């Protein structure tokens, strides 16, 4: 096992990884940008090194600086968390060349899933169902219009290198497509250095359901069931739960098989997530594979009892998976809400100074925190400042605990989406499990959020 | 004279008009950036830009005045 792990990330996920390392008696190294100096993860690590700078390009994404600290600290492995460098194949390759283990899949597997056009082809060839759409990138707006006619409107316009909803838009007509094509391509070029676009059929009122997989370097692949992540704003998840209240047992089994097929097709190892859209007839389609730990991984841990970070470390260190598929069972129900520093009505970011923080307590409540009662929430990073996870024997009990927890959750000094979360978990629609991706548009009543 | 205010806290990413420019209802004046999101701030009146109160890179709070416009 590793002696010392450097966490190339920040916030709640850095704290989360440090916690498992401590349990396994592994030394931890944190790296931090200037605005994060006072954040909990910097204190929790055994050693912490400043990156200088504030913006991610001057700090967490500055590969040279990160490499320098890896060498200086003597870390023998790097955990990239999610976002930032976690899906950067060149970074992973450089680590391996320097004899430092990258805790994640091979750079080749990352590359195969990183380009969405190639990923789609690979999945199709492997027999994993994909959404009808263009097989190749569309070069011009004229090609895009022709493709849209053969697929049929509405279509989803997507950036090949995209993520986080950037460069992605639903279009209903030639006119809309013309406008959206240029602007999204330009945006994708600016954000990802790649303006390649493709089109696919828009699945109306889909559920977003993803399967967690674990695979070792000996070819063993298992799945840890699904997470229902349909409640989203701006194509980013807000509330997740496991298991999904929507899919049937038969669909669950088929999706598990498809996810393992997807992982095997690219010789995947470590933890990964295969995302699917599921339509109202429970037909499911491959969306993308996230070749890293996910934000919402705790709900899977709560229902399976598996510490996913520990398994990541063990697999990266060359161990075989300790579980057989039949060892993995769903026990109870878990719900996660993401707490964002944002206006609950406009969803605009709301950075600022936290003046007080008081958390709900209880055995069924798990917290993952990026801040404390006197943190400044910087405008330079993602607005997610905390996650609150509740678990219980049944879905309705888990919801009940969540409603209570949100009632008792208090963050002062900045605006957060807690009023929105409270309103949603108390709706009849949420409680009955009716949670497709249009949920926030249809069921979120801003006036009632307080 | 109308004041165009920031609707969120963040930094001024780009200023897309200059003092003295004629602007029309709905035109972008300033683009704010915060937490990986860009929000264009527009004028809701036709008029002339009298003053731009911020510079690119400045940090602004919600409600801060970004520009003043003289209605035409």
From TrEMBL, chain A:
Q: Which UniProt keywords apply?
A: ATP-binding, Biotin, Fatty acid biosynthesis, Fatty acid metabolism, Ligase, Lipid biosynthesis, Lipid metabolism, Nucleotide-binding
Pfam family of the protein (one): CPSase_L_D2
What Gene3D superfamilies would the database entry show? ATP-grasp fold, B domain
Source organism superkingdom:
Bacteria
Instruction: Return the protein name.
Output: biotin carboxylase
Does the UniProt entry include the keyword Lipid metabolism?
A: yes
For this protein, the Enzyme Commission number is 6.3.4.14
User: Which InterPro entries does the annotation name?
Assistant: ATP-grasp, BC-like_N, Biotin_carboxylase_complex, Biotin_carboxylation_dom, Biotin_COase_C, CPAse_ATP-bd, PreATP-grasp_dom_sf, Rudment_hybrid_motif
Automatic annotation (TrEMBL), chain B:
- SUPFAM superfamilies, per this entry? Single hybrid motif
Is NADP a UniProt keyword of this protein?
no
EC number(s) from the headed UniProt entry: 6.4.1.2
Chain ranges passing through the membrane: none
- Which GO molecular function terms does the record list? acetyl-CoA carboxylase activity
UniProt domain Lipoyl-binding: residue ranges: 1-70
Question: What keyword terms does UniProt attach to this protein?
Answer: Biotin, Ligase
The cross-references to Pfam families, in alphabetical order and at most eight, read: Biotin_lipoyl
Gene3D superfamilies attached to this UniProt entry: 2.40.50.100
Q: What is this protein called?
A: Acetyl-CoA carboxylase
Q: Which organism is it from?
A: Pontibacillus litoralis JSM 072002
